[in-house]
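User: I'm putting together a small comparison set for a docking exercise, and I want a reference complex before I start. The sequence is below, and the ligand is zinc ion. Could you produce the 3D structure with the ligand included, as C-alpha coordinates?
Assistant: Of course. I'll restate your input first, then give the C-alpha coordinates for the complex.
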Amino acid sequence: MFKVPPVSVARLPALLRKMPKAELHIHIEGSLEPELIFALARRNGVSLPYADVESLRRAYAFTNLQSFLDIYYAGASVLLHEQDFYDMAWAYLERAAADHVVHAELFFDPQTHTARGVPIESVINGLHRACVDAASKLGVDASLILCFLRHLSEESAFETLEQALPLRDKFIGVGLDSSELGHPPEKFARVFARCGELGLHRVAHAGEEGPAAYIWSALDVLGVERIDHGVQAVQDAALMQRLASDRIPLTVCPFSNVKLRVFPDLQSHNLGRLLEAGLMATVNSDDPAYFGGYLNDNFVQTFAATGLLAPQAYTLARNSFEASFAGEVQRHRWEHQLKEVFESFSEHDY
Ligand code: HPA
Ligand code: ZN
Protein backbone atom coordinates (compact mmCIF):
# COMPACT_ATOMS: atom_id res chain seq x y z
CA MET A 1 0.00 0.00 0.00
CA PHE A 2 1.23 3.47 -0.91
CA LYS A 3 1.49 5.73 2.12
CA VAL A 4 0.13 9.13 1.06
CA PRO A 5 2.59 11.80 2.24
CA PRO A 6 1.25 14.75 4.24
CA VAL A 7 0.32 17.73 2.08
CA SER A 8 -0.72 21.08 3.56
CA VAL A 9 -4.19 22.48 2.83
CA ALA A 10 -2.48 25.42 1.12
CA ARG A 11 -0.85 23.14 -1.46
CA LEU A 12 -3.83 20.83 -1.89
CA PRO A 13 -5.42 22.72 -4.83
CA ALA A 14 -2.14 22.56 -6.79
CA LEU A 15 -1.87 18.83 -6.07
CA LEU A 16 -5.48 18.24 -7.14
CA ARG A 17 -4.84 20.06 -10.40
CA LYS A 18 -1.56 18.38 -11.17
CA MET A 19 -2.34 14.77 -10.26
CA PRO A 20 -3.01 12.51 -13.26
CA LYS A 21 -6.64 11.40 -13.41
CA ALA A 22 -9.26 9.75 -15.58
CA GLU A 23 -12.63 11.29 -16.43
CA LEU A 24 -15.34 8.64 -16.79
CA HIS A 25 -18.56 10.68 -16.81
CA ILE A 26 -18.57 13.46 -19.38
CA HIS A 27 -21.36 13.93 -21.94
CA ILE A 28 -19.52 15.37 -24.88
CA GLU A 29 -22.60 17.38 -25.91
CA GLY A 30 -22.44 18.87 -22.41
CA SER A 31 -18.98 20.29 -23.16
CA LEU A 32 -20.36 22.61 -25.87
CA GLU A 33 -19.52 26.09 -24.63
CA PRO A 34 -21.94 28.91 -25.58
CA GLU A 35 -19.24 30.49 -27.77
CA LEU A 36 -18.87 27.26 -29.78
CA ILE A 37 -22.68 26.87 -29.96
CA PHE A 38 -22.91 30.31 -31.60
CA ALA A 39 -19.90 29.70 -33.87
CA LEU A 40 -21.40 26.41 -35.12
CA ALA A 41 -24.86 28.02 -35.50
CA ARG A 42 -23.29 30.66 -37.77
CA ARG A 43 -21.24 28.11 -39.70
CA ASN A 44 -24.29 25.89 -40.28
CA GLY A 45 -26.98 28.54 -40.71
CA VAL A 46 -28.93 27.28 -37.68
CA SER A 47 -31.02 29.88 -35.86
CA LEU A 48 -31.12 29.79 -32.06
CA PRO A 49 -33.86 31.09 -29.76
CA TYR A 50 -31.21 33.21 -27.94
CA ALA A 51 -29.85 36.56 -29.18
CA ASP A 52 -26.27 36.04 -28.03
CA VAL A 53 -23.87 34.13 -25.78
CA GLU A 54 -24.86 36.15 -22.70
CA SER A 55 -28.58 35.52 -23.04
CA LEU A 56 -27.93 31.80 -23.59
CA ARG A 57 -25.76 31.70 -20.47
CA ARG A 58 -28.50 33.47 -18.50
CA ALA A 59 -30.83 30.57 -19.37
CA TYR A 60 -28.54 28.17 -17.48
CA ALA A 61 -30.58 28.43 -14.27
CA PHE A 62 -31.76 24.89 -13.71
CA THR A 63 -34.24 23.61 -11.17
CA ASN A 64 -33.92 19.87 -11.86
CA LEU A 65 -32.59 17.38 -14.43
CA GLN A 66 -35.37 17.98 -16.97
CA SER A 67 -34.96 21.76 -16.96
CA PHE A 68 -31.29 21.21 -17.86
CA LEU A 69 -31.98 18.54 -20.50
CA ASP A 70 -34.35 20.87 -22.40
CA ILE A 71 -31.56 23.44 -22.88
CA TYR A 72 -28.85 20.80 -23.43
CA TYR A 73 -30.78 19.25 -26.34
CA ALA A 74 -31.42 22.74 -27.80
CA GLY A 75 -27.68 23.50 -27.65
CA ALA A 76 -26.88 20.26 -29.51
CA SER A 77 -29.09 21.33 -32.43
CA VAL A 78 -26.15 23.23 -34.01
CA LEU A 79 -24.23 19.97 -34.61
CA LEU A 80 -24.75 18.84 -38.19
CA HIS A 81 -21.51 17.70 -39.84
CA GLU A 82 -18.67 15.36 -38.93
CA GLN A 83 -16.34 18.33 -38.43
CA ASP A 84 -18.74 19.84 -35.86
CA PHE A 85 -18.49 16.70 -33.75
CA TYR A 86 -14.72 16.72 -34.14
CA ASP A 87 -14.46 20.38 -33.09
CA MET A 88 -16.65 19.82 -30.02
CA ALA A 89 -14.67 16.80 -28.83
CA TRP A 90 -11.34 18.44 -29.59
CA ALA A 91 -12.22 21.50 -27.51
CA TYR A 92 -13.04 19.22 -24.56
CA LEU A 93 -9.92 17.09 -24.99
CA GLU A 94 -7.68 20.17 -24.99
CA ARG A 95 -9.23 21.29 -21.71
CA ALA A 96 -8.92 17.77 -20.32
CA ALA A 97 -5.21 17.70 -21.17
CA ALA A 98 -4.76 21.01 -19.33
CA ASP A 99 -6.43 19.39 -16.27
CA HIS A 100 -3.95 16.46 -16.37
CA VAL A 101 -6.66 14.07 -17.50
CA VAL A 102 -4.69 11.18 -19.00
CA HIS A 103 -7.72 9.05 -19.89
CA ALA A 104 -11.30 10.04 -20.79
CA GLU A 105 -14.35 7.97 -21.65
CA LEU A 106 -16.77 10.24 -23.51
CA PHE A 107 -20.52 9.69 -23.52
CA PHE A 108 -22.39 10.67 -26.65
CA ASP A 109 -26.13 10.66 -27.46
CA PRO A 110 -26.63 9.52 -31.09
CA GLN A 111 -30.43 9.76 -30.93
CA THR A 112 -30.22 13.51 -30.26
CA HIS A 113 -28.61 13.84 -33.68
CA THR A 114 -30.14 11.06 -35.80
CA ALA A 115 -33.61 12.39 -34.88
CA ARG A 116 -32.61 15.61 -36.71
CA GLY A 117 -31.45 13.70 -39.79
CA VAL A 118 -27.73 13.68 -38.95
CA PRO A 119 -26.17 10.37 -40.08
CA ILE A 120 -24.77 8.35 -37.17
CA GLU A 121 -21.53 8.02 -39.18
CA SER A 122 -20.99 11.80 -38.95
CA VAL A 123 -21.42 11.64 -35.18
CA ILE A 124 -19.18 8.66 -34.48
CA ASN A 125 -16.50 9.36 -37.09
CA GLY A 126 -16.10 12.98 -35.98
CA LEU A 127 -15.84 12.10 -32.29
CA HIS A 128 -13.55 9.15 -32.97
CA ARG A 129 -11.15 11.20 -35.10
CA ALA A 130 -10.79 13.66 -32.21
CA CYS A 131 -10.02 10.76 -29.86
CA VAL A 132 -7.34 9.44 -32.24
CA ASP A 133 -5.75 12.89 -32.53
CA ALA A 134 -5.88 13.36 -28.73
CA ALA A 135 -3.63 10.35 -28.23
CA SER A 136 -0.95 11.57 -30.64
CA LYS A 137 -1.16 15.35 -30.13
CA LEU A 138 -2.22 15.76 -26.48
CA GLY A 139 -1.15 12.51 -24.82
CA VAL A 140 -4.77 11.93 -23.73
CA ASP A 141 -6.13 8.42 -24.15
CA ALA A 142 -9.82 8.76 -25.08
CA SER A 143 -12.62 6.41 -26.00
CA LEU A 144 -16.36 6.60 -26.66
CA ILE A 145 -19.45 5.23 -24.88
CA LEU A 146 -22.74 5.33 -26.81
CA CYS A 147 -25.67 6.34 -24.60
CA PHE A 148 -29.30 5.44 -25.18
CA LEU A 149 -31.84 8.13 -24.24
CA ARG A 150 -34.07 6.53 -21.64
CA HIS A 151 -37.07 8.80 -22.35
CA LEU A 152 -37.25 7.19 -25.81
CA SER A 153 -38.48 3.66 -26.52
CA GLU A 154 -36.74 0.31 -26.39
CA GLU A 155 -37.38 0.06 -30.12
CA SER A 156 -35.52 3.32 -30.76
CA ALA A 157 -32.58 2.08 -28.67
CA PHE A 158 -32.43 -1.18 -30.68
CA GLU A 159 -32.58 0.79 -33.92
CA THR A 160 -29.72 3.02 -32.74
CA LEU A 161 -27.64 -0.02 -31.81
CA GLU A 162 -28.21 -1.51 -35.29
CA GLN A 163 -27.16 1.77 -36.94
CA ALA A 164 -24.02 1.94 -34.82
CA LEU A 165 -22.86 -1.64 -35.23
CA PRO A 166 -20.98 -1.11 -38.53
CA LEU A 167 -18.84 1.32 -36.47
CA ARG A 168 -18.48 -1.12 -33.57
CA ASP A 169 -14.69 -0.73 -33.39
CA LYS A 170 -15.05 3.03 -32.68
CA PHE A 171 -16.85 2.77 -29.32
CA ILE A 172 -16.15 0.62 -26.29
CA GLY A 173 -19.48 0.44 -24.53
CA VAL A 174 -23.01 1.66 -23.97
CA GLY A 175 -24.68 3.80 -21.33
CA LEU A 176 -28.14 5.05 -20.39
CA ASP A 177 -28.91 8.72 -19.80
CA SER A 178 -31.58 11.47 -20.04
CA SER A 179 -34.73 11.76 -17.86
CA GLU A 180 -34.41 9.22 -15.07
CA LEU A 181 -37.70 9.39 -13.13
CA GLY A 182 -40.37 7.22 -14.75
CA HIS A 183 -37.82 5.48 -16.98
CA PRO A 184 -36.38 2.63 -14.88
CA PRO A 185 -33.47 0.54 -16.14
CA GLU A 186 -35.81 -2.44 -16.72
CA LYS A 187 -37.15 -0.67 -19.81
CA PHE A 188 -33.82 -1.45 -21.52
CA ALA A 189 -33.19 -4.98 -20.21
CA ARG A 190 -33.24 -6.60 -23.66
CA VAL A 191 -31.10 -3.92 -25.32
CA PHE A 192 -28.44 -4.22 -22.63
CA ALA A 193 -28.55 -8.02 -22.81
CA ARG A 194 -27.81 -7.76 -26.54
CA CYS A 195 -24.99 -5.29 -25.87
CA GLY A 196 -23.53 -7.74 -23.36
CA GLU A 197 -23.57 -10.50 -26.00
CA LEU A 198 -21.74 -8.12 -28.33
CA GLY A 199 -18.98 -7.70 -25.75
CA LEU A 200 -19.70 -4.02 -25.13
CA HIS A 201 -19.01 -2.50 -21.73
CA ARG A 202 -22.21 -1.44 -19.96
CA VAL A 203 -22.84 1.51 -17.64
CA ALA A 204 -26.01 3.41 -16.69
CA HIS A 205 -27.10 6.59 -14.95
CA ALA A 206 -28.96 5.54 -11.81
CA GLY A 207 -29.69 7.13 -8.45
CA GLU A 208 -29.13 10.72 -9.59
CA GLU A 209 -32.74 11.89 -9.11
CA GLY A 210 -34.13 8.36 -9.21
CA PRO A 211 -34.40 5.98 -6.24
CA ALA A 212 -31.88 3.44 -4.94
CA ALA A 213 -34.10 0.77 -6.56
CA TYR A 214 -32.88 1.98 -9.97
CA ILE A 215 -29.29 1.26 -8.89
CA TRP A 216 -30.23 -2.30 -7.94
CA SER A 217 -31.90 -2.86 -11.30
CA ALA A 218 -29.05 -1.25 -13.26
CA LEU A 219 -26.75 -3.81 -11.60
CA ASP A 220 -28.97 -6.87 -11.61
CA VAL A 221 -31.15 -6.35 -14.70
CA LEU A 222 -28.81 -4.44 -17.02
CA GLY A 223 -25.58 -6.02 -15.75
CA VAL A 224 -23.70 -2.71 -15.65
CA GLU A 225 -20.06 -2.49 -14.55
CA ARG A 226 -20.34 1.09 -13.22
CA ILE A 227 -23.10 3.33 -11.93
CA ASP A 228 -23.20 6.92 -13.17
CA HIS A 229 -24.02 9.27 -10.26
CA GLY A 230 -25.40 6.73 -7.75
CA VAL A 231 -25.48 9.28 -4.92
CA GLN A 232 -28.93 8.08 -3.80
CA ALA A 233 -27.33 4.76 -2.75
CA VAL A 234 -27.01 6.19 0.77
CA GLN A 235 -30.79 5.68 1.14
CA ASP A 236 -30.29 1.88 1.21
CA ALA A 237 -27.85 0.21 3.62
CA ALA A 238 -27.97 -3.16 1.83
CA LEU A 239 -27.14 -1.46 -1.45
CA MET A 240 -24.19 0.35 0.15
CA GLN A 241 -22.89 -3.05 1.28
CA ARG A 242 -23.30 -4.50 -2.19
CA LEU A 243 -21.54 -1.57 -3.90
CA ALA A 244 -18.65 -1.74 -1.44
CA SER A 245 -18.17 -5.50 -1.49
CA ASP A 246 -18.39 -5.79 -5.29
CA ARG A 247 -16.25 -2.67 -5.75
CA ILE A 248 -18.80 -1.16 -8.14
CA PRO A 249 -17.53 2.24 -9.25
CA LEU A 250 -19.75 5.32 -8.91
CA THR A 251 -19.01 8.20 -11.27
CA VAL A 252 -19.99 11.10 -9.03
CA CYS A 253 -20.45 14.63 -10.44
CA PRO A 254 -20.48 17.23 -7.65
CA PHE A 255 -21.10 20.42 -9.69
CA SER A 256 -23.90 18.70 -11.61
CA ASN A 257 -25.58 17.55 -8.41
CA VAL A 258 -25.61 21.07 -7.02
CA LYS A 259 -26.74 22.76 -10.27
CA LEU A 260 -29.58 20.23 -10.68
CA ARG A 261 -30.47 20.57 -6.98
CA VAL A 262 -29.77 17.02 -5.93
CA PHE A 263 -27.85 18.71 -3.06
CA PRO A 264 -28.48 22.29 -1.92
CA ASP A 265 -24.76 23.18 -2.01
CA LEU A 266 -21.30 21.61 -2.32
CA GLN A 267 -20.86 21.53 1.46
CA SER A 268 -23.81 19.11 1.68
CA HIS A 269 -22.48 16.75 -0.98
CA ASN A 270 -22.10 13.13 0.17
CA LEU A 271 -18.84 12.32 -1.67
CA GLY A 272 -16.95 12.06 1.63
CA ARG A 273 -19.61 9.78 3.07
CA LEU A 274 -19.42 7.47 0.05
CA LEU A 275 -15.63 7.23 0.42
CA GLU A 276 -15.89 6.60 4.18
CA ALA A 277 -18.29 3.75 3.47
CA GLY A 278 -15.59 2.20 1.26
CA LEU A 279 -17.34 2.80 -2.06
CA MET A 280 -15.29 3.21 -5.21
CA ALA A 281 -16.32 6.78 -5.95
CA THR A 282 -14.75 8.92 -8.67
CA VAL A 283 -15.10 12.64 -9.45
CA ASN A 284 -16.35 13.79 -12.86
CA SER A 285 -17.70 16.90 -14.60
CA ASP A 286 -20.86 15.49 -16.34
CA ASP A 287 -21.71 18.54 -18.51
CA PRO A 288 -18.93 21.03 -17.79
CA ALA A 289 -20.10 23.81 -20.13
CA TYR A 290 -23.46 23.92 -18.32
CA PHE A 291 -22.51 23.22 -14.71
CA GLY A 292 -19.80 25.79 -14.07
CA GLY A 293 -16.53 23.97 -14.53
CA TYR A 294 -14.31 21.18 -15.77
CA LEU A 295 -12.77 18.34 -13.84
CA ASN A 296 -10.15 20.26 -11.85
CA ASP A 297 -12.74 22.85 -10.84
CA ASN A 298 -14.91 20.02 -9.51
CA PHE A 299 -11.99 18.59 -7.53
CA VAL A 300 -10.71 21.87 -6.08
CA GLN A 301 -14.06 23.36 -5.09
CA THR A 302 -15.50 20.11 -3.72
CA PHE A 303 -12.42 19.52 -1.58
CA ALA A 304 -12.52 23.11 -0.30
CA ALA A 305 -16.23 22.86 0.53
CA THR A 306 -16.23 19.43 2.17
CA GLY A 307 -12.80 19.37 3.83
CA LEU A 308 -11.46 16.34 1.97
CA LEU A 309 -7.65 16.04 2.05
CA ALA A 310 -4.69 14.45 0.25
CA PRO A 311 -5.54 10.81 1.15
CA GLN A 312 -8.97 11.20 -0.46
CA ALA A 313 -7.40 12.91 -3.48
CA TYR A 314 -5.14 9.92 -3.97
CA THR A 315 -8.01 7.45 -3.52
CA LEU A 316 -10.23 9.31 -6.02
CA ALA A 317 -7.52 9.49 -8.69
CA ARG A 318 -6.55 5.85 -8.19
CA ASN A 319 -10.23 4.86 -8.29
CA SER A 320 -10.61 6.68 -11.61
CA PHE A 321 -7.94 4.44 -13.15
CA GLU A 322 -9.24 1.24 -11.55
CA ALA A 323 -12.82 2.05 -12.62
CA SER A 324 -11.80 2.84 -16.21
CA PHE A 325 -12.05 0.48 -19.15
CA ALA A 326 -8.40 1.08 -20.07
CA GLY A 327 -5.97 -1.84 -20.27
CA GLU A 328 -4.08 -3.02 -17.22
CA VAL A 329 -0.66 -1.94 -18.46
CA GLN A 330 -1.85 1.63 -19.03
CA ARG A 331 -3.68 1.73 -15.70
CA HIS A 332 -0.54 0.68 -13.85
CA ARG A 333 1.52 3.28 -15.66
CA TRP A 334 -0.89 6.05 -14.62
CA GLU A 335 -0.99 4.77 -11.03
CA HIS A 336 2.80 4.98 -10.99
CA GLN A 337 2.69 8.55 -12.32
CA LEU A 338 0.13 9.36 -9.63
CA LYS A 339 2.46 8.20 -6.87
CA GLU A 340 5.31 10.25 -8.35
CA VAL A 341 3.23 13.42 -8.29
CA PHE A 342 2.18 12.79 -4.68
CA GLU A 343 5.79 12.18 -3.67
CA SER A 344 6.85 15.41 -5.38
CA PHE A 345 4.31 17.26 -3.19
CA SER A 346 5.53 15.72 0.03
CA GLU A 347 6.02 18.29 2.82
CA HIS A 348 9.21 16.42 3.79
CA ASP A 349 10.89 18.16 0.86
CA TYR A 350 10.88 21.43 2.81
N1 HPA B 1 -28.24 12.84 -16.27
C1 HPA B 1 -28.97 12.28 -17.23
N2 HPA B 1 -28.80 12.54 -18.51
C2 HPA B 1 -27.86 13.41 -18.87
C3 HPA B 1 -27.08 14.03 -17.92
C4 HPA B 1 -27.28 13.72 -16.55
O1 HPA B 1 -26.62 14.23 -15.61
N3 HPA B 1 -26.24 14.85 -18.61
C5 HPA B 1 -26.50 14.70 -19.91
N4 HPA B 1 -27.49 13.82 -20.09
ZN1 ZN C 1 -24.44 12.30 -16.78
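Strands lie at 21-27, 101-108, 141-149, 173-177, 201-206, 226-229, 249-252, 280-283. The pocket of hypoxanthine (ligand 1) is lined by residues 27, 30, 65, 72, 177-178, 205, 208, 256, 286-287 (CB under 6 Å).
User: Thanks, that's exactly what I needed.
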